[in-house]
Amino acid sequence: MIQKLLIANRGEIACRIIRTARAMGIATVAVYSDADAKALHVRSADEAVHIGPSPAAESYLVGEKIIAAAKATGADAIHPGYGFLSENAGFAQAVIDAGLIWVGPKPSSIEAMGLKDAAKKLMRAAGVPVTPGYEGEDQSVERLKQEADAIGYPVLIKAVAGGGGKGMRKVDAAEDFEAALESCKREAKASFSNDEVLLEKWITSPRHIEVQVFGDSHGNVVHLFERDCSLQRRHQKVIEEAPAPGMDEATREEICAAAVRAAKAVDYEGAGTIEFIADASEGLRADRIFFMEMNTRLQVEHPVTEEITGVDLVEWQLRVASGEPIPLRQEELSINGWAIEARLYAEDPAKGFLPSTGRLERLDLGTEYTRIDTGVDQGSVISPYYDPMIAKIIYHAEDRETAIDGMWRACGVTIVWPVKNNAWFLHRLFSLDEFQTGAMTTATIEEHIEALAEAPGIAANVLRDAADWIVSGGKYAPAYNFRDGIKGFRLNSKAETRVRLLVGGEETYADLISSDQQTGKDGVFFGFADDELRYQDGTVFEVKPFRHDGTGSHHAHDGDIIAPMPGKVIAVDVAEGDTVTAGQRLLVLEAMKMEHALTAPFDGTVTSLSASEGAQVQVEALLAVVEPAEG
User: Fold this and answer.
1) Which of 62, 278, 410, 490 would be 289's cystine partner, CB 3.0–4.6 Å?
2) Of residues 207, 233, 297, 343, which has the active-site annotation?
3) Which pTM does this prediction carry?
4) Is 3.40.980.10 the CATH number for 107-124+208-225+239-336?
């Protein structure tokens, strides 16, 4: 058995692996960058080694530094987690060559499944159904465009080395193909150092179904049933569940058997996932479910499988990597109940899901009945360098209806402040008819995005309670308020008082009844006052007295193009003097592993351009100015 394990990762998955290793009596070593010096995974491990600057390319993605850290600490094994180097066959081989145990599949298996075009050919040969498309070597724009026209629109462009939703673009019409291809290839090059792509037919009523598989060095391969990951935004999973709603036993047997054949075709060892796309226009049918790709690692959504099977997949990984057989036979595995997972991200749904950074001054996650997998705690900092996940919220119940209700309540009481987050967005998702009936597709979120992402408003009675708290000097305290201080604001109260307030930076009023002159409080962070309101959106509002002392945040000119976060300018599409139209892309900013297009707010002229391709910019940096067209 492994004696000391180095985790070549960070955040939530590093903490998850440390938890199981500790339960097994295995010592743990964390690695960390400058940005993660005080991170939870560093504090949780038995030892920690600094491996470089904050950018992942200079720390978590440098295999030599990680192997050196393992050698220096006497670790005998490396677990890559997911992301970073987890599916890098070269790194896996380097670990093995260094005399260390690699907690993952053979490098040859990673290589076989690492390129989507080669993997699809291999799956066809193994008798696994594959989506129609193009995986040819000719990568010229002309050939790709020709193949897309032949397949018929809409088509999906996918990076052959892709994963996690990166390097994927849906194209609805021929005239949009070249621009989408350019963007896809650029993102693929930045994320995977490989800009080759393949094409797939876009499936009508698509559902994302995946099967958890596990193999060992003794020739055994089992499946741990399926998961449904159809609720996605920009090809990134938002909510996952197990088992898949609407899956009958016959279809389950066929799709799981196909997944096992896929794993055996590459002599697979360890945890892996076979991902399928299903045409659910007539329900889930085995003859309409097609192989997409294999993820040769542990998945983000593995907890829902653990919850319905009672298996600790990380423990299985460590045992199998140590040479043991899979702990259970296929006939010993069964589905018990229903589990759902939601990904809580530091992002603002009301502003195009822009990532949010900063210190987590308040962090209350889920309920006492939920499983929380996280790599942060109260006081942690969300940095711009890595994926913006705060936590995974997981709920296990006897049936799907109860699991949905439990997740709805858990997201409703989640409080994260002041970092923007998607808790209220998740809360609304669980109320969607399509989700509750199991009729969702990968397009469901986009179809309802306007209603789902509309910024929540503050209820009138909550606003009155906040005003009352301010003028009473804190006498009537609501459920959540903290970090207050007297700032000299005073009211000469009348029998009926109208209080002028700032709520999240917006001026508003609240009417209340008061009798005495009171001293107000500034800097009130206000949550909900009762359970009925608590379960509406889980949203927190900042409420302050309105003051005319010149304080407050700066409001940029309407035509100022401001960097919403620190990042790198990867494309500039305009020059000074250019005439632009409302919505036209001006430049692209890359931050937190995602591309963010900044567009013209109205018709006008670019009168100033301070951004240049390749430049690193800070949050709120002025990148360009657009002057409105006359008239």
Assistant:
1) 278
2) 297
3) 0.78
4) no
